[in-house]
Amino acid sequence: MHCALYTAGSCRSCQWLEKPYPQQLAEKQHHLQSLLAEHHDVQWLAPVIGEESAFRNKAKMVVSGSVERPLLGMLHRDGTPVDLCACPLYPASFTNIFDVLKRFIPRAGLTPYNVARRRGELKYLLLTESTFSGGIMLRFVLRSESKLAQLRAALPWLQQQLPQLKVISANIQPVHMAIMEGEHEIPLTESQALEEQFNQIPLYIRPQSFFQTNPRVASQLYATARDWVQALGIASMWDLFCGVGGFGLHCAQPQTLLTGIEISAEAIACARQSAQRLGLQHVDFQALDSTRFATAEGKIPDLVLVNPPRRGIGRELCDYLNRMAPGYILYSSCNADSMAKDITMLPGYRVVRVQLFDMFPHTAHYEVLTLLVRK
What we know:
It comes from Serratia aquatilis. Helix content is 30%, strand content 26%.
């Protein structure tokens, strides 16, 4: 993949861009296999790959420059802004959206936030596209509500220019530190859920819910989990750290007892909406801490699926899984290092199948799906 921003030295986020893609893939696979080298008789499946460019469904753009000439992109550590609208990781559909947003910012009088001076209102623009409908979710991250009336008044022009905008909201982030969003979300459209669909499973994205950035590879990840789980013939499962329910909704059969747990209430609202659309009768999604739920629950499911953040599931949950002893654990991870540490704390289980999913080309990051079976 050629990137003029990388060549010019303006952006080095894709740290592996100079490596041929087959080499990138080989190094990731080697890293993963070295982490699990002590496990024997493992079925290693071929890595799943997607496109090398234009694969992202979202953009997180720092807004800088002036109100008359805003820049959308990022800030270097010294405060130097870089416009990333030409980043080749974004789909072609984003080009026009970025252009319209640059014209909208002065129309709405949204002064870009100046980090050094601690002045201005508009901090970020967060954009998500549905590959199912082409609909867009747009979030304005503002320092305060002082420009909210101006933003509302200018929105009809923006919606006329970009009819694909389905969900619009304002997030209020008053903290000066480099924290992307705050807790307070203000809806600016009646609809606050963007519909996506993977493998004929409806999924919904709300403003403060997490969703994968590489839809093509993510859909294959969910489909693979579905195939592995269905082959086991289980009757009950937990989906811990379930997000919007992608794994559990793929894996559950009409008769499956599924409990999905996620700390984010917004994500749980999405999962419940999907389950209702699918007509699943034996599904319970709850907005709880996954570890606290698991350690307090008395019933033991046939399978526990975990999809934790980068830190992994940790010793407390590992110890509990060892004691409760479900027949299977399906571990989806965005950080193979923390996954490998967790697996060492699950001595009652053996690794039987592993597959790498290259969700993040041109970086050292990847997703991995691992099936563990009780010894």
